[in-house]
TrEMBL record:
It is found in: Membrane. This is Cytochrome P450 monooxygenase. GO terms for cellular component: membrane. Its cofactor is heme. The keyword rRNA processing does not apply. It is a single-pass membrane protein. Keywords: Heme, Iron, Metal-binding, Monooxygenase, Oxidoreductase. It comes from the Eukaryota. Heme binds at C465. The keyword Iron applies. GO terms for molecular function: heme binding; iron ion binding; monooxygenase activity; oxidoreductase activity, acting on paired donors, with incorporation or reduction of molecular oxygen. The lineage of its organism: Eukaryota, Fungi, Dikarya, Ascomycota, Pezizomycotina.
Amino acid sequence: MVQATTHPAIRGLKVVRPYPDMVASSGLYRVLLSSAPSVFTPRTKLGLPIVGYRSIFEPSWLLKLRFIRNSRGILKEGYDKYRDMFVIRRWTTDVVVIAENKYMEEIRAHTKDAVRSVEPFVLDLAGDFYHQGKVFIESDLQNRVVQHKLTPNLGNLIPIMKSELGFALQEELPDVEAEDWVEVDAINVFARSIARIVARIWIGPDECRNEDWLVATTDYTQNIFATGFILRFVPWFLRPIVAPLLPTYRSMLKSSANAQKIVDGLINNREGVTRTKSDGSKLSNDILQWMMEMARGKELQRENLAERILILSLAAIHTTALTMAQALYDLCANPQYIDELREELVEVLRSEAEWNKTTLLRFAKLDSLLKESQRLNSVFLLTFNRFLPTPITLSNGVHLPARTRIAVPQYAIMNDPVNVPGEDPAKFDPWRYEKLRKEPGNAQKYFFAMTDAQHMAFGYGKYACPGRFFASNEIKMVLAHLLLRYDWKFPEGQGRPQNFTIDSDMFPDPTKRLMMRRRTVEKGLEDLLAF
Ligand code: HEM
């Protein structure tokens, strides 16, 4: 029997399966599931294997449900068995997973590397129903601003970021004046602290500490994901009825309205300034200002600007906070490396005597730790998520129709021993990339913010994450402060929080805590720290 997939994105990827999903409703289902041989591999009409079925009797809906919590296992199975190319079944869509670099390069050449990850990302959030994120699809003002304004200004922004991180950490970390160990919910504290720094750079000094903005940006992310997650299980035609019943949906709209109000007020003030200061000297150095300057046509509409800033906060806050928390967890799980890392921080800060681009560049061990931690605990298992704009036939003869959804199993690739550079691929080695950079010809390779075919945690190609250079600076500045000001460990009897997955995103167990204690800062550094 031939079943056609239903999602418009995968029209043409017909699935050939010789058994009906109705088997699931039979009383024999459980017995059959466990006793049937697992040698059978369903394939799409194009001949691509679909991974993850536990037996010939497992219905597709169950596989799609299982992908939510077992994506890591299913992707690894596909990567180990088929390597080049295979298909995974997600709740809303099938995805052609491409693990062989050769085929990805063929796709990049064919598309001129001009397709972005935004559309699949928004559709995954059921975005075509509630339109959140639509502005990101319509145009790429956010990318232009990050690439042409934020990144070239990173050096100038360091003092501002330092000042805001001092305030943020003092506000958000628990009070640890006494030299006792105090428990901390690292994920939440880091998300709130990063949200503050991001707010300062996104909307400037006047409103960045406005609690409504901070709540809007942190809650918006959680609510948009939760709403999208629930709505995915609701048929398209019922979504307009179900959505308003969801508290997460109502909170999301409230965040959006609050953000709109704040951005509106800022634009009112700034339009006056733009008119009177023709030399531009008094204009703010922040994302909103840059967007106002670079926006064209519809991008200039206030709702458009406000939504864009909100979604750019979404892209920047939790990804960064999780990456930072994972690195700190890795250090706590391997405390023998902490002193060596502190030595580097102290030595570089003493010799530079200030926080600047070179200071952050010289934090080579910290940079290497971040890359190694990301290799083992990346936020995304799949990157290079794209819809093919036009059909393509790859050199292995596989024809992929237009609108095929593709992705790269970057977590499996990064953790395949043959792709791990340096020695001992199975080991957590925080100095792996620092050692490699010392080898001849490698000085400009293996930086945390760089992407290559073996390490695509920030994506790949022209539309790899444009914010990765900002994220790298931000994490280094915050982590350096956290390590110099405090000691860190896990609570008695608790090990490193285990990672779990929801769909193809990975998170550390949010119920786990860290312990922190104030320490004496090395001589001569007190005045260099933000707090
Ligand atoms: C550690 C933190 C971060 C991680 C792990 C991360 C990861 C990613 C990944 C995997 C992609 C998809 C790229 C691809 O598929 O080729 C992406 C896209 C994007 N990221 Fe990040 N990101 C981070 C921080 C940031 C920050 C701080 C910003 C803003 C300054 C940002 C802005 C964006 C934008 C605008 C896109 C969409 C690019 C497009 O048009 O396709 N990200 N990010």
